[in-house]
Amino acid sequence: MTIKLNKDQIRELLPHREPMLLIDELINIKKLFSATALMHVKKNSFYVQGHFPNQPVMPGVLIVEAFGQAAAALTAAGIDKSEYDNKLVFLMSVEKARFRNPVIPDCTLELNIEAVRSHGRVWKYKGEAFVEGKKMADAMWSATIVDRK
User: Fold this and answer.
1) Which of 3, 34, 79, 140 could form a disulfide with 29 if both were Cys (CB 3.0 to 4.6 A apart)?
2) H or E stretch including 13?
3) Going by DSSP bridges, is the β-strand pair 34-41/107-119 parallel, antiparallel, or unpaired?
4) Strand ranges of the sheet holding 34-41, from the earlier edge strand across to the other edge
5) pTM for this predicted structure
6) Spatial separation of the C-alpha atoms in residues 107 and 7, rounded to whole Å
7) How confident is the model at residue 2, as a pLDDT?
8) Tens digits of per-residue pLDDT, 57-106?
């Protein structure tokens, strides 16, 4: 059975809201291990307006943000609600981020993510981003779960 989350279910897990809630679906979820996030990159998305005029490209930093959101949703979906309720997930580090091809709207960006390890509230992940089977980016990153203040 394939476990998946739609945007409304992701919204219940993450504090992000439009326009910064980037991922649209989380599919192929293997609890606390891996998942694929789908992000519909559109020509009218805020992050491509002006980046760049007449040749829109999704900023690489937002690909990293989408990786982080996918990882946060994967983790929140796999742990007890009391562990993430009234908490935030903060990016701690980004390693080995490579942007191999520009992400051009209108497309669906597939973000394959995997939890590499966890130690307490600190998690390490790796991910690869694809459009129609072509690798666009990859990275490793760490994040932590902190109390809301």
Assistant:
1) 3
2) helix 7-13
3) antiparallel
4) 25-30, 34-41, 107-119, 122-131, 134-147, 87-99
5) 0.95
6) 17
7) 57
8) 999 999 999 999 999 999 999 988 887 788 888 999 999 999 999 999 99
Q: Is the dihedral of CA 81, 85, 91, 92 positive or negative?
A: negative
Q: What's the DSSP call for residue 138?
A: E
Asked if 45 and 93 touch (Cβ cutoff 8 Å), the reply is no
Which amino acid, one-letter code, is at 81?
A: K
DSSP 79-92: S-HHHHTTEEEEEE
Question: Other CB atoms closer than 10 Å to residue 102's CB: what's the count?
Answer: 13
DSSP 26-77: EEEEETTTEEEEEEEE-TT-TTTTTSSTTS----HHHHHHHHHHHHHHHHHH
Query: DSSP letter at 140?
Result: E
Considering 16, 40, 51, 119, which one is annotated as catalytic?
51
Among this protein's residues, is 40 annotated catalytic? Answer: no
Phi/psi of residue 61, nearest 5 degrees:
-60, -30
Report the C-alpha gap between 3 and 35 in whole angstroms. Answer: 9
- Count, residues in the chain: 149
